[in-house]
Amino acid sequence: MFDTPEAKFAVTTVREAAQIARRVQKELVVEAIAKDDKSPVTVADFASQAVVAKRLSDAFPGEVLVGEESAASLRTEEGRATLEQVTHFVRHVFPDATTRDVCEWIDRGAVETPPPRYWTLDPVDGTKGFLRGDQYAVAFAQVSNGQVQVGALGCPELEEGNRPAKNGAGCVLLAVRGQGTVVQALDAEEGAGWTKITVSDHAAEVDARLLCSVEKAHTDTGGIGLLVKTLAITADPVPMDSQAKYAVLASGAGDVNLRLISPNMPDYREKVWDQAAGSIVVEEAGGRVTDLDGKPLDFSQGRTLAENRGVLATNGKLHDALLTGLKQIGA
């Protein structure tokens, strides 16, 4: 179980990228916070994507990465200082890396039309969480013919997939299609055991624990409030940003994760890297993930889920009730 080359690669790569993010956070964030500077997360994003892209090309030559970042801004005069910082952190992994190498590696993720089989990466999901030392995640997945086959989440501020722990051991979650979802400490030694996780068995809407973004700009709070009222949900919501929400849902510490379409952006479509790893982590833990209309997520449409509208992830037992509630409120 979980011994395929793809699964092993996903885990080791996510571990490495998460450690890079931790290093950037430790060295740069404290000073930046005082200046309201968001550049550390930019450095972490670029450095993580560069390393993952290089690892992928070495391990699976010719395979495609669909990543969040492009090096275009780093090649400008304004981006030179950031590029130097990114290269500094990449050199902790590849000591001989040049700034040119780094830009080329990052741009391996700038594919507009991926083939049927590809990998997708969100190098640091959760900008504000990263900056304030709260939840963020490295999300990496392998897709084949529109369906995620392998997904790994690195959550440096989450232990055992369900317990926030600032500066704690962190965790990595791995899911392989048809084999379940497991969790392990982020810094676990090679050969350490994995723990299998499953979603909750809550079946009553009133008890549904909604995983809600801390950053209000990330969600349609009005729509979620109306849904809560419509379904008479009384359970306290679980505030959390990033794909760490998927980890918490998969481990049974939450029941529902919603991505409602904002009324201000009715044509918005989710990016593949924002949903791929998290969705299979939940599904293989026994949950269910669809769009707001109940359709399976289709990862064959390029860099976005162009054929899907929003996302609904649940423990499975609550899914139909949530879909009905969404229809009732016109979401």
UniProtKB/TrEMBL annotation:
Annotated Mg(2+) binding sites: E68, D122, D125, D274
An example Gene Ontology biological process: sulfate assimilation
The organism's place on the tree of life at top rank: Bacteria
An annotated Gene Ontology molecular function: 3'(2'),5'-bisphosphate nucleotidase activity
Alphabetically ordered keywords of this record: Hydrolase, Magnesium, Metal-binding
Cofactor entry: Mg(2+)
Protein family: Belongs to the inositol monophosphatase superfamily.
Listed PANTHER family: 3'(2'),5'-BISPHOSPHATE NUCLEOTIDASE (PTHR43200:SF6), PHOSPHATASE (PTHR43200)
Name this polypeptide is given: 3'(2'),5'-bisphosphate nucleotidase
